[in-house]
Design a protein that fits this description.
It contains seven helices and no strands. By secondary structure, it is mainly α.
């Protein structure tokens, strides 16, 4: 057996009890090394690698993929409606007005998706909190995390809508209506 688990009544005495146990076995052929369950779990995770690095890389890849997919959706949406934008310009919409329509569409798309996604996470987090109270706050989303998520949704909207909006702003009405 390579480890013993002890349950103590007063967690504030953990360090002192651990030292007393280590002192009892200091001169034996198998000395002990006492550590908390939390410290052992952290050491186990460290042996897998830098979890923070892996998490940040996965989140970064997901954000890039979301940006790419949203940008592709916006490009396709604008490409299919080129004649409509040309008609809007013919009716008197300014270049900036049409640009604002495209950026507004991207913002609405991303903000609604962000609200739905973060809302689902909030509901699942509350459910997990009730089902597994031992991991208390791990699944709960804070307001700063919610607003950070909405900030990323806005950033995604502006980055994905920038190129299509720029194309619509520079749209030549005659060429667009002629289908060129």
């Amino acid at each position: 057996m390579d480890r013993f688990l002890l349950l103590i009544r007063d967690p504030n005495q953990a360090v002192q009890i651990g030292r007393q146990i280590d002192k009892l076995f200091a001169n034996s052929s198998q000395p002990t090394r006492t550590e908390s369950e939390k410290a052992q779990s952290a050491a186990g995770l460290r042996s897998l690698g830098d979890i923070n690095f892996f998490t940040k890389m996965i989140v970064g890849c997901l954000l890039f993929m979301l940006l790419f997919l949203t940008g592709n959706t916006m490009m396709q949406s604008v490409r299919e409606r080129i004649p409509e934008f040309a008609v809007l310009k013919t009716l008197g919409f300014s270049d900036e007005g049409v640009l604002a329509l495209v950026v507004g569409e991207a913002a609405m798309l991303c903000l609604l998706a962000g609200i739905v996604g973060l809302g689902i996470i909030q509901l699942l987090g509350r459910y997990c909190y009730l089902a597994f109270p031992g991991v208390a706050g791990l699944f709960l989303m804070t307001w700063p995390a919610f607003f950070t998520g909405m900030g990323f949704a806005l950033l995604t909207a502006f980055l994905s809508g920038a190129i299509p909006a720029w194309r619509v702003k520079r749209l030549n009405v005659v060429d667009a209506l002629a289908g060129r």
